[in-house]
TrEMBL record, chain A:
Residues 37-134 form the PDZ domain. It is a peripheral membrane protein. Residues 1-20 are annotated as: Disordered. SMART domains: PDZ. This is Tax1-binding protein 3. Residues 11-20 have a biased composition (Polar residues). The keyword Transport does not apply. Keywords: Acetylation, Cell membrane, Cytoplasm, Membrane, Nucleus, Phosphoprotein, Wnt signaling pathway. It comes from Hucho hucho. InterPro entries: PDZ, PDZ_sf, Synaptic_Scaffolding_LAP-MAGUK.
Automatic annotation (TrEMBL), chain B:
The keyword Zinc does not apply. The lineage of its organism: Eukaryota, Metazoa, Chordata, Craniata, Vertebrata. It comes from Hucho hucho (huchen). This is Rhotekin a. Residues 491-524, 540-568, 620-670 are annotated as: Disordered. Residues 540-554, 620-637 have a biased composition (Low complexity). SUPFAM superfamilies: PH domain-like. Residues 18-93 form the REM-1 domain. Signal peptide: none annotated. Residues 314-421 form the PH domain. It comes from the Eukaryota.
Length: 145, 670
């Protein structure tokens, strides 16, 4: 399911874009965010493919306990831990990032388990994430000034 | 446009309201009764405050509380109003009577009739049983239909409200813990108990619980939910008596937006219902199943209604007397200080004795069986004397009292007659003094957060660390080891030896035989001594995801010799929860519970807050540790240790149970 989202995708490195909005989520309105595209190659560990980070959140979780979200009603998927030297860290994922898309699949309106499943599909070697973080917004704002 | 018309109407209603308020104030002023005037002013101010709060607040709970205060204020104002009207009428009648007769008719008041004394009436432990249909009671799906209820208690002009209670189908009774005391009630009092309720449907905003949102997203509105919504959005549809018919015009509650309470049931209690124990009374229920505010009542209310007439609690008469016991030595008058209180006439040697709370010299019973008469003028004394006869067993004992003067004697006789009259009016309340517990000023009950989880209320001292908890536990372990060395080991110690029943991996078999031997010789660091081996042995069980797996690789790599003494690792990597879960896996749960009790009440680090309460409070459920270990936030570094993957069967079990645990904020490693 591809959600009703419109992204600004400046590419792998953050670039100036026309509009930059806040990360707040208004139900029913399309979400606009400054995102970074991160490509993670899964690492084979025995018979498992791992990415090297942990996620938290989901529409079935309590958003008040999310330490990384600014808006405590944000039920999105956040990166809670990044294993050092793991594939995610190498690709540029950072703790506190909010995952917006995985391989084109929306991650802003999913349950925790759905999110985990979308990241751990056995037949996929590579996951392309769209993540957003506060620093991206600020970088864009600064570069616009 | 219709909106303008509504706004117009609202304005008109508001103007009417203000006029009514002014009218009420005028009446109060004209009667020059400052007492009622003050009370009315106070209530009007409270009412304004409640209206403003209702308009301003956004939370449903706040709105319900504000609506409750609004209803109480309205009812109180109505009561004062009616009292004012009565007084006004009485005044007018008096004037009319005076004009027609030319004489003051105020003497026609009850001067000849005796007035009974007033008393305290207390109602406590109100309990209203509910009668849910068994289909509703066991229904697990669907939203919990909740109602906010409270009771309004009225004696004459005194109106009190109880606290608000949220009722849903998990409740079997509505219990109100308040004790309400009415201080000045006459024996003919009528205590009106009214139960008000207001439905409290969750509105579909972002504030609702995640699960509800998910279920709403996945399922559409059912017929019953839709019906409830429709009724809720249509105020006053089922409320013929919302706030009382006349009151709606006088004090239009409709002008105020927000939740509205409706009368659900009422009953009236009086002196005949007073008893020193719990009794069940019938309720008259208004409203039916289709109303939004409906709560299925069984039809009765249980409560304890006690009364303390003042004649039982206060001194009705006191003074100096001379007492002579008939059958005793004639002419032997004893000078006493007598105090008439309750069912006794206490006779003290001196007045100071009574004030010093010394035991009285003797006590004469004054109760329903007592006979009192004024005797003829005793030729030896100047004044009349009073004879009090009582039956003690089969014997009749008579005391003769004599006062100093004729007036004193008359006053004592009056006091006795009044006492008898009071006792006849208050009937069963004068047999024995009923206890009334005054409601102590207690702190308001903890308002649980939306999750309603007690764990969110646990006070956590951020300065303390998980290491203190582990220290306590290890110290206890050490004590127990010492005891085992002496030969008196507790039965569970055997679990640390080779226990055939426990879940074990090959690693466990390797390590465990060493643990009991190892422990006595272990070096100083307390953390090392019991835990590491156990941790490593159960690595596969606990290392389902991030943080606990840090424990196993650490110890696996470091082995026994390597001390985990670096303070950097101790508090962070070895989660208490992982340790507890390993021990739990060996059925250690029961004892661990006691050793965990002391730390649980005191401080824990904020990060493992989710892990520890579960471990201490529910040691028996092993999966809660797994889920909580998932839920821990500790961002520990693993130093390139390999990731371990749980088997899929264990993982699915863990998933299911972890998902069912609402305290967690799940984290998954991918």
């Amino acid at each position: 399911m591809k959600g009703p989202l419109s992204y600004l995708q400046p590419g792998r490195n953050t670039k100036v874009s026309d509009q930059s909005e806040t990360m707040s989520f208004i139900p029913g309105q399309p979400v606009t965010a400054v995102v970074q595209r991160i490509e993670i190659r899964k690492l084979r560990q025995g018979e498992h493919l791992i990415l090297g980070f942990s996620i938290g959140g989901g529409i079935d979780q309590d958003p008040g306990q999310n330490p990384f979200s600014e808006d405590k009603s944000d039920k999105g998927i956040y990166v809670t831990r990044v294993t050092p030297e793991g594939p995610a860290e190498v690709a540029g994922l950072m703790m506190g990032d909010k995952v917006m898309q995985v391989n084109g699949w929306d991650m802003t309106m999913v349950t925790h388990d759905q999110a985990r499943k979308r990241l751990t599909k056995k037949n996929e070697d590579v996951v392309r994430l769209l993540v957003t973080r506060k620093s991206l917004e600020q970088a864009v704002k600064h570069s616009m000034m | 446009m219709p909106m303008d018309r509504y706004a117009d109407m609202e304005n008109k209603l508001r103007i009417l309201e203000d006029l009514n308020m002014m009218y009420i104030r005028q009446i109060a002023l004209s009667l020059q009764d400052s007492d009622i005037q003050k009370k009315i002013d106070h209530e009007i101010r409270m009412r304004d405050g409640a209206c403003k709060l209702l308009a301003a607040c956004s939370q449903r709970d706040q709105a319900l509380e504000a609506a409750k205060s609004l209803l109480t204020c309205n009812t109180r104002i109505m009561a004062y109003m009616s009292e004012l009207q009565r007084m006004k009428e009485a005044q007018v009648m008096q004037r009319v009577a005076r004009r027609s007769d030319g004489t003051r008719s105020s003497d026609a008041g009850p001067m000849d009739d005796r007035l009974p004394c007033k008393g305290k009436v207390a109602i406590s432990d109100l309990r209203i049983p509910l009668m849910w249909k068994d289909t509703e009671y066991f229904k697990n799906k669907g939203e919990l239909h909740r109602c906010a209820v409270f009771c309004l208690l009225q004696v004459g002009g005194e109106i009190h409200d109880t606290d608000m209670v949220m009722v849903d189908r998990t409740l079997t009774d509505i219990c109100f813990d308040n004790t309400i005391v009415f201080s000045e009630a006459s024996p003919g009092f009528e205590l009106r108990v009214e139960l008000y309720s207001c439905c409290s449907e969750e509105d579909y905003s972002a504030g609702s619980a995640p699960r509800k949102l998910a279920s709403k997203l996945s399922s559409s509105l059912g017929r019953s939910a839709g019906k409830k919504l429709r009724v809720a959005m249509d105020p006053g549809a089922c409320s013929p008596t919302s706030n009382g018919g006349a009151v709606t015009l006088l004090l239009p509650g409709h002008a105020v937006a927000g939740p509205k309470y409706h009368l659900l049931a009422h009953t009236s209690l009086s002196l005949s219902h007073v008893q020193d124990s719990f009794r069940t009374h019938d309720l008259s229920i208004s409203g039916n199943e289709d109303c939004s505010y409906w709560v299925p009542l069984y039809g009765s209310v249980c409560c304890r209604l006690a009364a303390q007439p003042h004649c039982m609690t206060q001194q009705m008469m006191s003074g100096c007397l001379k007492v002579k016991q008939l059958g005793g030595d004639p002419q032997s008058w004893t000078n006493v200080y007598g105090v008439l209180k309750g069912t006794n006439l206490f006779c003290y040697h001196r007045q100071e004795d009574m004030e010093a709370n010394v035991e009285p010299a003797f006590t004469i019973a004054i109760n329903k069986e007592t006979r009192i008469r004024a005797s003829e003028k005793d030729p030896h004394s100047k004044a009349q004397s009073i004879c009090i006869s009582n039956q003690y067993g089969g014997e009749e004992v008579t005391h003769t009292l004599s006062a100093d003067s004729h007036e004193e004697t008359h006053r004592w006789m009056e006091a006795f007659w009044q006492q008898f009259y009071d006792m006849s009016q208050w009937k069963q309340c004068c047999d024995d003094l009923m206890k009334i517990e005054l409601p102590s000023p207690r702190k308001p009950a903890l308002v649980t957060s939306k999750q309603g989880s007690l764990y969110h209320e646990i006070v956590i001292d951020t300065s303390d660390d998980i290491s203190t908890v582990t220290d306590i536990l290890t110290r206890r372990m050490q004590e127990l080891e010492l005891r085992s060395q002496l030969g008196t080991s507790p039965p569970w110690m055997s679990l640390f030896e080779e226990s055939p029943g426990g879940p074990r991996t090959p690693r466990l078999a390797r390590h465990s035989p060493r643990s009991p031997h190892r422990l006595p010789h272990s070096p100083l660091s307390p953390l090392r001594c019991p835990w590491p081996g156990l941790l490593s042995s159960d690595a596969s069980l606990t290392s389902d995801s991030d943080s606990p797996c840090s424990t196993s690789p650490c110890s696996r790599h470091r082995g026994w010799a390597e001390p985990l003494s670096s303070p950097r690792f101790r508090p962070r990597t070895l989660s208490l929860d992982a340790k507890l879960s390993t021990l739990r896996g060996r059925g250690y749960g029961g004892v661990l519970q006691c050793s965990c009790q002391p730390p649980s009440s005191s401080s824990l680090g904020p990060i493992p807050a989710q892990c520890v309460p579960q471990a201490t409070l529910s040691c028996s459920s092993s999966t809660s540790s797994n889920s909580s270990s998932e839920g821990s936030h500790s961002p520990s570094s693993l130093d390139g240790t390999p990731f371990s993957r749980p088997s899929s069967a264990r993982r699915s079990l863990r998933n299911v149970r972890a998902k069912l645990d609402p305290r967690n904020w799940l984290q998954s490693q991918v």
